[in-house]
Design a protein that fits this description.
single chain; four-stranded antiparallel β-sheet; 502 residues; Aspartate Aminotransferase, domain 1; Aspartate Aminotransferase, domain 2; 14 strands; alpha/beta; Arc Repressor Mutant, subunit A
Length: 502
């Protein structure tokens, strides 16, 4: 057994016999500095004086003298049977290590981030990490996580950890876990009309990574890319990060206005669309408009990124088959995510890539994160294969439909004349139309002060002028009917002064 006291931390103490200062003073100063800098935390155990003296090649009295001074000043304390430890409560002068006393990092004129990084820092991107904790009414993206079949997931996870294989713990395939890709391909063919095989599936860290890869692979910096307006801020961010010239294309009752896109940027190399359930307006792109988009992409040699982020939650009618199912020229990249359907921290998504593009996309993926975590994929593959996934979708589809109905009903009861809630055919939020002249950004700030988290539609507009009447987005999926009613009542009290006539 090492002579070091059990559990004691090693100390890096350098002594200089030529320094002109006593050795016990040098030992004291070094340990004192380690405590002040937080490198020795409260309760940390120090080596015994005899052990430290041996390590430093000094007399034990040298170390004892240093320890006695530290103890007298309150920095360390001896405990019966517990050796010497850093004090749990430090002296008064140690209790004010304020942030202002810490060195602040300054880039300086010769050491700064790139211009692109500074531009990205100015983008308005929602910070999902700030949304952790209790669900506020009516936060976008919140889900009914308490209804997730955690026992099924835990059972499947235990199965893999009971006898972990080398395959599950070693480096995996850059495209992702083969059984999961097979399960996704079968599901997409059956449920979404996607023409694909397992070889075309690439597992990603959510749909955002699919966006990032596609923006870097499908176009060069400076190329134009169509973006729905209003539209998903994460897509705009990915294209901007890749150096693309993002061209806002308006949304009408048929979906993206393809004729407007051709007029504004006919030689664009990429178009981002959410045709099944446009984010954030909830519009379904018509069949005629889909064919128009594909004709343009085919004739121009452009790519279309189809983000099918929440098509599972369709309440009124069956959705149109995926846009990718109409593509006969191999110009559509289809992407989906399990973060919306299962739980956000899973961070597993997928993309369906045309065969001719696979090698290029996989090489780009290697430079990003090599491959997705294998064990999470293995559990998800079993979750799909054993029917848990589709059972969960059916339950959540019914639950979310009921919660949307509860929100629309609460809107009629509490928000009449203040916010006109429009029922949606699917998804996890509804759009509420404000009275003329009421600014949605201001309304959202007022609601936030009342403890209600609504999102202004203007946040998702990029360049087109906002309409005279503005809107708020209200998420409902993570709220019980009681929470929805309470939130609607609070929102009404907040909006009433803004919407009062005359």
């Amino acid at each position: 057994m090492s002579p070091r006291s059990a559990g004691a931390l090693p100390l890096l103490v350098e002594l200089d016999a030529q320094a002109g200062r006593p050795l016990h003073e040098q030992v004291y100063q070094r340990i004192h500095s380690l405590i002040r800098e937080g490198l020795l935390s409260a309760g940390a155990r120090l080596p015994a004086t005899r052990v430290l003296a041996t390590e430093l090649d000094v007399s034990r009295n040298t170390v004892v003298t240093a320890f006695e001074r530290l103890a007298a000043e309150g920095y360390i304390e001896g405990r019966a049977g517990g050796g010497t430890r850093v004090s749990q409560v430090l002296p008064d002068d140690m209790m004010e290590i304020a942030a202002s006393s810490m060195p602040r990092v300054s880039y300086g004129p010769d050491r700064a981030p790139s211009r692109r990084a500074l531009e990205l820092a100015q983008l308005r991107i929602r910070r999902w990490s700030e949304s952790a904790g209790p669900v506020e009414p009516f936060r976008l993206g919140a889900q009914a996580l308490s209804h997730f079949p955690a026992r099924d997931w835990a059972r499947l996870a235990r199965r893999h950890w009971a006898r972990p294989t080398t395959m599950a713990m070693d480096y995996g395939s850059v495209a992702g876990y083969r059984p999961l890709r097979e399960g996704i391909a079968a599901y997409l063919q059956r449920a979404r009309g996607v023409n694909c095989d397992a070889d075309q599936i690439i597992i990603t860290s959510g749909s955002q990574q699919a966006l990032d890869l596609s923006a870097r692979v499908l176009a060069d910096p400076g190329d134009a890319a169509w973006m729905e307006d209003p539209g998903y801020d994460g897509a705009r961010g990915a294209m901007t990060a890749a150096g693309l010239d993002v061209v806002a294309v308006s949304i009408d009752e048929h979906g993206m206005n393809v004729a407007e896109g051709i007029q504004r940027a006919p030689r664009a190399k990429l178009a981002y669309v959410t045709p099944s359930h446009q984010f954030p307006l909830g519009i379904t792109m018509t069949l005629a408009r889909r064919r128009e988009l594909l004709r343009w992409a085919s004739g121009q040699g452009a790519w279309v990124f189809e983000d099918d982020y929440d098509s599972e939650f369709r309440y009124a009618t069956r959705p149109l088959p995926a846009l990718q199912g109409l593509d006969v020229r191999g110009c559509v990249i289809y992407a989906g995510t399990f973060s919306k359907v299962l739980f956000p921290s899973l961070r597993v998504g997928y993309m369906v890539v045309p065969h001719a593009l696979l090698d290029t996309m996989l090489h780009a993926r290697i430079l990003s994160d090599v491959h997705p975590p294998t064990l999470a994929q293995a559990v998800l593959a079993d979750f799909i294969a054993e029917g848990c996934f589709e059972r969960h979708i059916r339950r959540m589809r019914s639950l979310y439909r009921e919660r949307q109905e509860a929100l629309v009903c609460a809107g009629r009861q509490y928000l009449d004349g203040m916010l006109d809630l429009q029922p949606a055919n699917g998804g996890m939020h509804v759009v509420g139309l404000l009275p003329p002249g009421v600014d949605d950004l201001h309304a959202a700030d007022v609601a936030s002060a009342a403890g209600v988290k609504v999102t202004p539609l203007s946040f998702f507009r990029f360049s087109n002028p906002a309409p005279d009447r503005r809107s708020l987005l209200l998420g409902y999926a993570g709220l019980t009917p009681e929470q929805i009613a309470s939130g609607a009542e609070r929102l009404a009290r907040a909006l009433e002064p803004l919407t009062r006539r005359g």
